[in-house]
Amino acid sequence: MGRSDPDLDDAREVLTWITKHGQPTFTRRDALRALQGRTRFSTAADLDPALTLLTDHGHIRPKTPEKSSKGGRPSTAYEVHPDALRAP
């Protein structure tokens, strides 16, 4: 049996959530809240390798950060490739 790459497994988990989420955009915070507890993502930094891999493969792309009206630090936002939303 072949070895599994943890970053690839994490990216698949995030992509599954993106597909089920069904929205054209999401934030890193959205993903963490949805995936925390069920997977190995306990901090936002744990998501970074998976998000980078999905970005590198064209499934998502970072959006230009918008200033928060509440004065807080904005969460990184991503746009989802339309084909990712059409997954079976």
Explain what you see.
- By secondary structure, the protein is mainly alpha-helical.
- The chain has helices spanning 6-21, 28-35, 44-56, 82-85, and strands at 25-27, 60-62, 77-80.
Task: Write a short abstract of this structure.
With 88 residues, the chain is mainly alpha-helical.
Whole-number mean pLDDT: 86
Helix content: 40-55%
Total count of helical runs of at least 4 residues: 4
Q: Identify low-pLDDT runs.
A: none
Distance from N terminus to C terminus (CA atoms, Å) equals 27 Å
By DSSP, the count of extended strands is 3
Alpha carbon gyration radius: 13 Å
Query: Strand arrangement, largest sheet?
Result: 1-3-2
Describe the main β-sheet briefly. Answer: 3 strands, antiparallel
The percent range for strand residues is 5-15%
Principal-axes geometry comes out as: globular
List keywords for this structure.
88 residues; mainly alpha; globular
Question: How does the SSE layout of this entry go?
Answer:
Layout: H1 6-21, E1 25-27, H2 28-35, H3 44-56, E2 60-62, E3 77-80, H4 82-85
Antiparallel strand pairs: 1-3, 2-3
Helix pairs in contact: 1-3
